[in-house]
Amino acid sequence: MTKINLSDLSFFYQRQKKIVHNLNLQLPIGALSLLIGPTGCGKSTLLKIIAGIYPKYGGKMTGKIERHNLTYAMMFQNPSEQFTMATPRQEIIFALENLQLNHDEYERRLKDAVVFTQISKLLDQKITTLSGGEKQRVALAVLIAMNVDLFLLDEPFASVDPEARSFLIKKLAQLRDQGKTIIITDHVFNDYGPVCDQVFEFQGPTIVKLNQAQKAALFKPKRVTLHFPLPSEKETAVFNLNQTKIAQQRTLLAQDQLKIYQGKSTLITGVNGIGKTSFFKALTKMLPYTGHITFNDQEVSGWKAQRYLTHVAQIFQSASDQFLAVTVQDELNLSKKDRNHYFTDEKIKQALEQLDLTDHLHQVVYSLSGGQQKKLQILLMLMTKHEILLIDEPLAGLDANSVKQVLALMQESQQALQQTFLIISHQIAELSDFCDYHLQFAQRKLQYVSEVQHES
Amino acid sequence: MNPSLKFLLVFIISLEISIKNSLTTNILLILAALIFLLWQRIKIKDILLLIAVPFIAAFTIFATLYWFQTQPDHQYAWILSSRVYVYVLTIACVAKTTTATELARSLEQNLHLPSKFAYGVLAALNIIPRMKAAVKQIRTAAMMRGMYLSFWSPMLYFKAILVAISAADNLAQGMESHGYVEGRARSAIIKIPLTSKDWCLFILILFLVNVSLFCFK
């Protein structure tokens, strides 16, 4: 079997330590390979090197890559950065025109890609209005339509719900059986067991292939039933929903009654595009609603944004949306200006160490890896004086160790300050101990549930 | 009509009326454009905006020439101020009947402009709604950190520019990751036709405008 050869490969961004150093790696063609490693280790960078994007767009590289004339395409970690055109259909046309295909071929491939990723309803919607998970499916559809030999997928399922995820992984295995080469980076390993041919793990600036035993241990299924208590009516509510409707092109939420309880952590789960983030947007006044949502017995729409947002804040899905300054230190200084009593200078220093960010203080925030950005973002927002934090996918893109660090920090902060957390996540197992209640978002309704079957 | 041809036609007419003075032609063009827009079922609100907004410019020019010249030239005042409306309304006719994507495709396919240019313009247009959303997001993010960013706040623009720069860089990478190679031939899956009917209409309209320009004052 021929292989994609990386020989003596070294790569670094300016003035940074080498991300990969003298790497010799052979990636088998016609196989599905998983590339794993802690947050910020260089998984995305390596994929971009294989995709020929680096060093063209940044960094310095020595060494050689043999791709054996395979055609290739890459799906970025943040899919909204990848689209040129306004709608999924136009984006697919654009990509296929680049490959110089004719109209008949386009129709055939469009059909394949749409069936494969089940995006027929999304084809002519504006990409800006799609949810994070929907964008990831569209990004995958473009690659399917391009019908390349080598698929480079950078955390393609980070915001995809578990059902769609397991469906798409099975589909990718079919592609592999047709002779395609697939390289995926991910932090969540369920569903890969039966389909993954080999696993490569980043260890420092080099990469090793896991042996059968290590691989089996990684994929060992752990099916658990998780229990959450149900809230009692006596508790104090911070948010009260009454005949509330939220719509964005289609109705997302139509809720008769709902209470969100004070000083508790509530987990919100639901499939992609159901409206979880839109619900947060309505709670932060970024999206209008009809009916009533009251905060401390006052209608949310009646609050002045400036005052309201000193009580309620959101930790955005995309970390870079939260940043306002240039370097990590600048961001910290900004948050220090108006911080709560728990985060003293000493505590901040300790938290930075806990999150492995101490070495990055002078780095530009946008040059941090996806996971490092996420950790910094969460720290910055925990430092503020808000009583309520709406946290959108806090664990997406974090390795197991970082997940622990982040959760520990959130827990300390909540115990000290009695904040109310509302958390959107697909990683139920990791959050089951942390969260008091569980709200399930389905069929345009949010409902407290006590038992969930979960596979991890 | 073919988008590029439409665009060229409006461009040539605008150039011609800038050089040759003819109030009759200007008024005929304004009427024709208005009738065309109504025929295309433009919203009344839009048409009122199209009349109200350029009025400031048109009236300023008119007032200067009509009342504040040492030797007022009334005919010239009317010509110059009506010109403003010709520019605005004719380009509105193009904008009403063409999407940005159609124009970009047409520029690439019919006028054989480099695809880099066509898609660069298109990508820039597609970024506008994203920038709008970004500005709103930045202001909200700032309020959540206890800062109120007004519309003239340097921090707002600093961050907006950062968003734009990173969007531009990502866009280049994104285009490349979807198979775009600068200078390489591309196929045309959605063909923008350039028919003889388009050409006939183009020549006819241009001919009529020129007749009017040279025959009427």
UniProtKB/TrEMBL annotation, chain A:
Entry keyword set: ATP-binding, Cell membrane, Membrane, Nucleotide-binding, Translocase, Transport
Annotated Gene3D superfamilies: P-loop containing nucleotide triphosphate hydrolases
Domain ABC transporter: 4-229, 238-456
Localisation: Cell membrane
Record's bilayer topology term: Peripheral membrane protein
Pfam families: ABC_tran (PF00005)
Cellular component GO terms, alphabetical: ATP-binding cassette (ABC) transporter complex
Signal peptide boundaries: none
GO molecular function: ATP binding; ATP hydrolysis activity; ATPase-coupled transmembrane transporter activity
Main location as per UniProt: membrane
Presence of the UniProt keyword Nucleotide-binding in the record: yes
Protein origin, superkingdom: Bacteria
Family to which this protein belongs: Belongs to the ABC transporter superfamily.
Protein name as it appears in the record: ABC transporter ATP-binding protein
Organism of provenance: Lactobacillus xujianguonis
TrEMBL record, chain B:
Family matches, as Pfam families: CbiQ
Membrane topology: Multi-pass membrane protein
Subcellular location, record wording: Membrane
Statement: the UniProt record of this protein carries the keyword Chloroplast: no
CDD domains: EcfT
Listed InterPro entries: ABC/ECF_trnsptr_transmembrane
Signal peptide: none
GO cellular component terms, semicolon-separated: plasma membrane
Spans traversing the lipid bilayer: 23-40, 47-68, 147-168, 199-216
Protein name in the entry: Energy-coupling factor transporter transmembrane protein EcfT
UniProt source species: Lactobacillus xujianguonis
